[in-house]
Amino acid sequence: MTGGELDDRSVTEAICAAFVPLLEATPGYLGVVVVVDRERRVLRGVSFWDGEESRDRSRPAVLAAVGETRKLTPVEFEGPWDYEVAYSRFRGPVTPPPGTGEQPPMLVRVGQIEGGDAADPGLVEVMKRYAATVVAPSPGCVGTLLLVDRDRPEVLGAALWADAVAAHRMDRAGDVAVQALAEGAGSVSFGRHGYEVLVSRPMTQLVD
After folding, report:
1. Does domain 84-89+97-196 have CATH number 3.30.70.100?
2. Which CATH topology does 2-76 take?
3. E strands, the chain, where?
4. For labeling, which of 8, 33, 76, 136 is most exposed (least CB within 10 Å)?
5. Residue 35 near residue 43 (C-beta atoms within 8 A)
């Protein structure tokens, strides 16, 4: 989702309150992660399902949730898109602290590589090794996720961090890695952005 008043904390909290229960009530639901970039006014959500049938059944719930969101603020919606989970590691059920008060919000860095050979199995294996050996063991990393859409083709890599300090430690290395992988794939589009974590309820199968 983009635009509207996604820079307003009360609006994004209301969106999550309307969106997440609709997904949780759908058979086959396993988990959800919702993040926001308030500066760019971009909200992303990733939901997990126990199979293709459940995923397909979830589409009416997703569209209903989009409808509820548009009652709150005029947003543009793209998707939903289907991804294969190529790699994941979450260090226990992750619940981000409130964005206000003494605790800072959890952050997530999302790298995107699209086009070319982005979904090539060999390149995806390289990305998995990087996530497992470099990103996941880093201090302050509480979750990693690699998603592949072989049809478009596109790869999304996400790392969840306990706070801004932990996230910033990996910023330069992360930028260099995404650029190198994109060049190796002959990608026509790539980028890396930071988000605040609003909801993180990863499916138990993805949790260490």
Report:
1. yes
2. Alpha-Beta Plaits (3.30.70)
3. 2-3, 29-37, 42-49, 75-76, 84-90, 107-114, 141-149, 154-161, 189-201
4. 76
5. yes
Pairing between β-strand 42-49 and β-strand 75-76 as defined by DSSP bridges: unpaired
DSSP H helices in 25-95: 52-72
Q: How far apart are the first and last CA of the chain?
A: 30
Tokens describing residue 181: 């992988």
The number of C-alpha atoms within 13 Å of 145 and in the hemisphere containing its C-beta is 28
Return all residues near 102 (Cβ < 8 A) that are at least 6 apart: none
User: Could you check whether 2-76 and 84-89+97-196 share the same CATH topology?
Assistant: yes
Domain ranges of the chain: 2-76, 84-89+97-196
Query: Is the distance from CB of 81 to CB of 149 less than 8 angstroms?
Result: yes
Cα separation, 199 vs 128, in Å, equals 24
> SS3 for 3?
strand
pTM of the model: 0.81
How far is it, in rounded angstroms, from Cα 47 to Cα 202? Answer: 8
Residues 87-138: tens digit of each pLDDT: 888 765 445 444 444 456 788 899 888 888 888 998 899 889 988 888 888 8
- For 147-202, how does the pLDDT look when each residue is reduced to its tens digit (9 = 90+)? 999 998 999 999 988 888 888 888 878 878 888 887 877 876 777 788 998 887 76
